[in-house]
Each structure stands twice: as C-alpha cells, then as structure tokens.
Design goal:
five-stranded mixed beta sheet; 804 residues; 8% helix; mainly beta; 8 helices; 43 strands
C-alpha cells in the first residue's frame, strides 16, 4: 500500500506488480517494496500484489525485501502519469550465492523439497512478525511438515505463551499468556469461529473440530490493535485460510498414512474400546489442491479423513495428608474415618485402576474461491466443514478401605477397618460428536487512494453427547461392600500387594465378576448448538504529513453469538426381580442382583497393565438391554431427572456492536512506528434459564390472594395445589424450563497503542499498551433465578437467589 494519497500529478507515476518466491512458486504476502531516496513504501497483499503511487518521474531504484530470500533491486523508469508494471521473482539466498560464484544451477534441490517447504514456512512466519503492527507470533502450515490427524493444536502448542489443555491425548483448548480458554478469542479469516464447548455454557473454542487442510497460517496476537475484539484478555488467535492467488501454478499436495499410538500397534482386531473388537492401526488421508486458473480467478479444494485410537489406561492413588484431607477426633473423642497424619507420613486411602480408550474419527472439507472484479477489487468466498466423532470408554476398578484406625498405616502400608471397605467396578461409556461449518464472503478494494474491506461470516457448531440413545448406559456401577481392604509394599505407582477379605477373613477375589452386584446406571445425553454471525467493514487512507507517512483507518463490526444447551440425565437404581437392592451377593436374605448376568465376554479379555491380571467386566450395552427387557428391575428418580433436565436447559444470545478508529505514523525513516486508536463496544445480552417459584404451588382465590389453610394461626399457611409427597408434580409446577428471562447491556472503550523500533535490521524492540475485558461465562446470564416465598416471614421474604 502506498503511504501517500494526494492526487497524482504529471510529475509522478505509479509502479505496481507482484512478488513471487521462485523456489516454491508462491506469491509472497508482506514483502516490503521501497524506492531508494524516497519515503515510499508498500507491502504486498495476500496475492503478492503491491502498488507504489506518487513515484517521482524518471528512473526509480525499487528494492524488494522478504525474510529468507535475496533482496532484489531494479531500476524502473516512470513516466508522467503512467502506471508501470514490474514483477519481482525472489530467489533463495543460497541459490543466488552459488550462482554469483559461478556455480550455475543448484543441483540436487529436488531431494530437499520437504526441507524447503519447512524453511519457506519459517520465513513466512518470521517475515509476518517482522512487519507486524503489533506483538504477534505466526506459524505457517508448512513449517512443521505433515500433521496426520490435522489438529491445529499440534501447531499452536509450539508457540510462546501458549499452554495446551489436552483431553484424552489430543489438544482441545488453549490458554494464552495465562488467560483461560474462555478469554482467548479464536477466529477464522477474522470471523468468529463457533464452538459448542463440550455442551457447556463456556466461551472456550475447542479446536478438535477444526481442520488444518485449508489453513495457510496461524497468527497469535499478543497485543491487540483497534480492529481486535475487546475480549482478547491476553491476546487472540486467527487462522488464515488458503487463497487461490497464493500460487502461480496449480499445486496438489496429498498424503496417505496409517495412524497408531506407540502402545497400541495392533494390525489385527483386539477388544475395545467399546463393545466390539477393532483394529488399532487405521488408515487416513488428506489433500489440498490450489488452482490459480488465471490472473482473475482461482480456487482451492481440500479434504481429509482420519481415525486414531488412543489407549487411556492409568492408575490413581489417593494419599491422606497429601492430596486428600484427614479428620480430627470429634469433641466426644470419636475418631473420623481417616485419622490425622503429618505431611512426611502420608498414607494410601484409595487406589483406582483405569483401562479403556477413545476412537477419534475426523472428516473435513474446505473450498475457497477468489475472483478479481477489477484491478483493484477482489471477491473471496470460503467454506469450511468439519465432523468429529469420538466414542470413548473408561473402565475402573477401585479399592477403598473407607476407614482406617490410628496406627494402622505407614507410607508403605494401610490396614482398613474390618468390614468397612468396598470394591467397585465402574464403567463410563459415551460418544461425543459434532459438526462445524462456516461460510464467509469478503470484498476488498485496494485502490490508489482508498483501501476498503467488507465481509460477512456465519459459523455453526454442534456438540452431541450420546449414550442411552445409542443403546448403553453412560455410567454404571457394580459393587461389593462389607469387605476389608489392605495395601502393602506401596511404591510411587501402586501397592504391589492388595488384600481383600470378607468379615470372616476369607479371601475375596476382586477380579471375579461373581464377587459384585449391580448397583446403578445413568444417562447423560446433551445437545448443544453454537451460532456466530459476523459482519464487518473498514475504510483506510494514507497521507503524507510533512514528510511523515500517516494512515487512518475506521471500521464497524457486528458480532452475534447464540448458545443453546439441553441435556437429559436419567438415573437408574438396580433392584432386580425381587425389587430389593443389595450390595453383596452374599446378602443373608439372598440376592438376585449379581453382575454376572451382564458379563462382558469381549472386554474381560483385556489385560489392564501395571502388573494387574485380567479383570472380569460387565457390559453397559447388556445392562441397558436388561433394562429395556425388564424395566421393573430398576427404579428411576423421575423428579431428579426432571430437575436435571430443566437445570441444564439454557439459552443465551449476545450481540456486540463495535466501531473503531486507528492511526499509524512512522518516524526516523520508518524505524519508529506507532499504531494506536480506540475501539468502542456496545454489548447486549438476552438469556433464558430455569425459574424456581414456590408460590406457583399455592392455591389462590378469585382475587388472586393465597388461600390460608389455617386462618386461626398468625401468618398465612398456604394451601398447596400439589402435596409435597408428589415431588415430581411439585417440581413441574414450581421449577420452570427457561422461565427466567435476563437482559444485560453495557458499553466499554478499548484504547490501545503499539510501538516498534528497528534497532537493527534483525533486531526490533516492541512495546504495547491496551485495555481489554474478560467477558463472563454465559451461565452468568442463563444460570436461572429463585424467587422468594412471599408468604414466609419478612426475614426471608426479600431474598432472591440468582443461580449462576
């Protein structure tokens, strides 16, 4: 972009063209183009295009600089009022050096294509950071080579200030400079990216539903400019999509691969993680095709699919006096379950063994279309789609003494109280699936005087947790109580010896399914949608203020976000055919609750590791089939189910209307650059959540007054519509789904100033000042409300509870 915008006179002309990297055929963005002896400077756009206006008539010495490539200088003769076309082809430094020494063509370059791609990626990143208006890091998609499952987190985790939050072995969310994921905005092409955030009311963006196939580079902004959203508490992340004008010639990149974890390299089918056997080594593929059809039109296509199995085995030790609390004797001298100890003498109070795994299916597709309406106008369309499906299963075996007496423990051994202990087998099965799609449309005008840009974006994301609807319980438990649990020969990983006996001292086999009885089963299904709509427009003009390059930019920004959550969490208690729950198969009155009725023949063949033998398991699928065939074997707390569903039914919509102005100025032959301005954001929030109103169960007369059940007593004794013995009926009447309506609005100003000084060509000092805001979780608006019981005494009648 030129730094002067006065009307062109007959004593000046224009130089324009494109800058190409000859090594990879890619047009360069942010290549610096200057004219020696003048203050003229321009940077190439994403298609490698530059324009220098008001160039003095006559020969002009034009210099082009890009990190990692040779500086190229050429003399261009400019005529009065004329526009001269001059393209530059930059070569790699090592190639130019060999040519200057008479070495001619560099041989064997075809053998280092991968290295060249990675070096080019690093050069792009360094060059972006060098000429950035603010403090930021950039990583190009080619910089680290291929990433098999296409997770953008594999790139972000290498950047300064980033801290990865890993779930099940994969990067899902990120903290930036200490700010939590809720306060790290992530955009795609500058537009808000939707994320259903694991079916919560959180603002975090989960990157496991975003694919790298159609991403050119990722920018991490550590200090904002006025264009940045105000909620960038400690910075933001922007993913830049590929463009058809990035390349001079069509380029196809593709790969076919096998995915595996180093501790699960089985080409044959093995048990798990769900009910069936599966191969743990799975194929995958991805590709990208960049097609610049001509100088005015081009497109890109990308896609990929992968399946990755991840084992999730671990052990968990609960140490009293260290990670868990202890209990002091009561006033009557009764010792609590876990006596006090000193930090140097902790003791093991519970041990849990976990086995299981997760299967991550990912599919993605993307397309971009670029069309030049004229020499100065360009239209860009992008569409991204990603689908993620992750069935996972955890199987636990827990040993709990439950009570320990003083003197019955050391750091290497624990003796549980006789008959107070418990052993449990727990299963947690769930399927997390979701779809994210995002179209955007942008128009850019890069004229000799005005620069303008406007665009709209739409992003939609879903997250669905499934279990009962897929034919299995989400969580289930089989247990055995009334046993004595002791640990011996404990080291950092686990007790080498675990002893389980009954109250008579007879051994109890914790690995035998016949030791346990069925206890509970649950569901935890959720359906969440997240929608973001964005529109933005900006206008920019450059000036020459007495020899100082100055530019002014103003813009408008409208962002709308909507989150809709619904869950269903039924809870089942197993009673068996006799309608009586038991906790041991040796119950004196007999028990028909044995867990062997839903024995899992497949997963019982899995050896959990850590030196443990095979554990006989029960199946969540068979357990659910048992319920479907015999629902009378189970009791269901319908009141708890209803209240859980209403409690988690929430909706929030937020609209942020913004306007900003930005100014740039450079001093000392552009060595000192200042970028500052202010952004104003008007925020409007509307939300819905649960409402608790006990007075809805009070009978009222024709005038609306509460009917007094005992007028002889002081105060009002309301007559209830539904008796308290009908808990579900009362809840349905007094606990209302999305009965709370909340509105909030506020205006905030966000000034910012970024300064950079070129101490040397390769040494830049930067500083910034800015204001930002940490927007609250959506639950602050949709958490719900509890209205006061106005018929109670005055001391409590004025209390209103906000459930957030």
């Amino acid at each position: 972009m030129a730094t002067t915008t006065s009307a062109q006179t007959v004593s000046s002309g224009t130089i324009e063209g494109r800058v190409l990297n000859t090594r990879n055929g890619e047009y360069l963005e942010n290549a610096r183009v200057t004219v020696d002896g003048t203050g003229l400077e321009a940077f190439t756009d994403s298609s490698g295009q530059y324009r220098l206006t008001n160039v003095p008539v006559g020969p002009a010495k034009v210099k082009v600089f890009f990190t990692g490539l040779d500086v190229q200088t050429d003399v261009v003769v400019v005529g009065p009022g004329a526009t001269v076309q001059r393209d530059f082809n930059l070569a790699a430094m090592d190639r130019r050096a060999d040519t200057d020494r008479g070495g001619g063509v560099v041989k064997l370059s075809d053998f280092v294509v991968a290295s060249s791609r990675e070096m080019d990626g690093a050069a792009i990143a360094i060059n972006e950071q060098r000429f950035a208006a603010n403090i930021k890091n950039v990583v190009a998609a080619d910089e680290f080579g291929a990433v098999s499952d296409g997770n953008v987190g594999e790139f972000l985790k290498f950047l300064p200030g980033m801290a990865i939050n890993s779930v099940g072995g994969e990067a899902r969310t990120f903290m930036l400079n200490g700010a939590p994921p809720n306060n790290v905005p992530i955009t795609l092409g500058g537009f808000d990216l939707a994320s259903a955030a694991g079916s919560s009311t959180s603002r975090r963006v989960e990157v496991d539903q975003v694919s790298l196939n159609n991403i050119s580079r990722i920018e991490v902004l550590h200090s904002p400019t006025p264009e940045s959203p105000g909620m960038a508490l400690a910075g933001s992340i922007n993913m830049v999509p590929r463009s058809a004008f990035d390349r001079k010639r069509p380029v196809f990149n593709g790969s076919v691969y096998f995915l595996m974890r180093d501790n699960a390299r089985d080409f044959h089918a093995t048990p798990g993680p769900m009910k069936d056997r599966m191969r743990k080594v799975r194929p995958g593929l991805d590709f990208s095709y960049i097609v610049p059809v001509n100088d005015r039109f081009g497109f890109t296509i990308s896609g990929g699919t992968s399946t990755l199995y991840t084992p999730l085995d671990n052990v968990q030790n609960t140490w009293r006096g260290n990670t868990a609390g202890t209990s002091t004797p009561s006033a009557a001298g009764v010792q609590g379950a876990f006596p006090d100890t000193t930090p140097d003498r902790p003791y093991l109070s519970e041990f849990r063994l976990r086995s299981g795994g997760k299967v991550s299916h990912r599919s993605s597709a993307g397309i971009t279309v670029d069309y030049k309406l004229s020499r100065n106008d360009r239209l860009s369309f992008m569409f991204q789609y990603a689908y993620s499906d992750k069935p996972f299963a955890y199987r636990f075996l827990t040993f709990s003494p439950n009570r320990v007496l003083p003197g019955d423990f050391t750091p290497t051994s624990t003796r549980g109280v006789a008959g107070a202990g418990e052993i449990r087998i727990d299963n947690q099965y769930r399927q997390k699936s979701g779809t994210t799609y995002m179209p955007t449309l942008v128009w850019r005008h890069d004229g000799p005087v005005w620069k303008a840009e406007t665009g709209v974006g739409y992003s939609h994301s879903t997250n669905i947790y499934s279990d009962n609807d897929k034919g299995y319980f989400s969580s289930s438990r089989a247990r055995r109580t009334g046993v004595t649990v002791s640990f011996d020969d404990i080291f950092y990983l686990r007790p080498r010896t675990i002893t389980v006996t009954d109250t008579a001292g007879r051994p109890v086999d914790p690995y035998d399914i016949n030791t346990y009885v069925l206890a509970t089963g649950n569901g935890n299904m959720a359906n969440t949608a997240d929608l973001h709509r964005s529109a933005q427009a900006s206008l920019k003009r450059d000036f020459d203020l007495r020899g100082l390059p100055v530019s002014l930019k103003g813009g408008l920004d409208l962002r709308n976000a909507m989150r809709d959550n619904r869950t269903h969490s039924p809870s089942f208690t197993f009673l068996g055919a006799d309608g009586r729950a038991t906790s041991t198969p040796l119950d004196p009155q007999g028990s028909d609750d044995g867990a062997a009725v839903v024995f899992d023949e497949v997963l019982s063949q899995v050896t959990p590791g850590f030196g443990f033998p095979r554990v006989q398991r029960f199946s969540n699928y068979k357990y659910w089939d048992l319920y479907k065939a015999n629902p009378n074997y189970f009791s269901i707390d319908r009141n708890a189910e209803y209240r859980s569903t209403v409690s988690n039914s929430k909706r929030a919509e937020e609209t942020i209307s913004s306007a900003y102005i930005r100014g740039d100025i450079a001093f000392f032959q552009r060595r000192l650059r200042l970028v500052g301005g202010v952004r104003a954001e008007q925020t409007n929030v509307e939300a819905e959540g649960p409402l608790t109103d006990a007075t809805r169960n009070f009978q009222r007369d024709a005038s609306g007054r509460v009917v007094d059940g005992n007028p002889a007593q002081a105060g009002v004794q309301p007559v209830l519509i539904i008796p308290t013995s009908d808990a579900l009926g009362v809840s349905r009447l007094t606990f209302i789904d999305r009965g709370t309506r909340a509105e909030k609005e506020y205006l905030r100003w966000f000034p910012s100033l970024n300064a950079s000084y070129n101490i040397r060509e390769n040494l830049i000092a930067r500083a910034s000042y800015y204001t930002s805001v940490g927007r609250p979780d959506f639950n602050q608006y949709a958490g719900g409300l509890t209205l006061p019981d106005t018929e109670n005494p005055p001391s409590t009648s004025n209390r209103i509870s906000v459930n957030n």
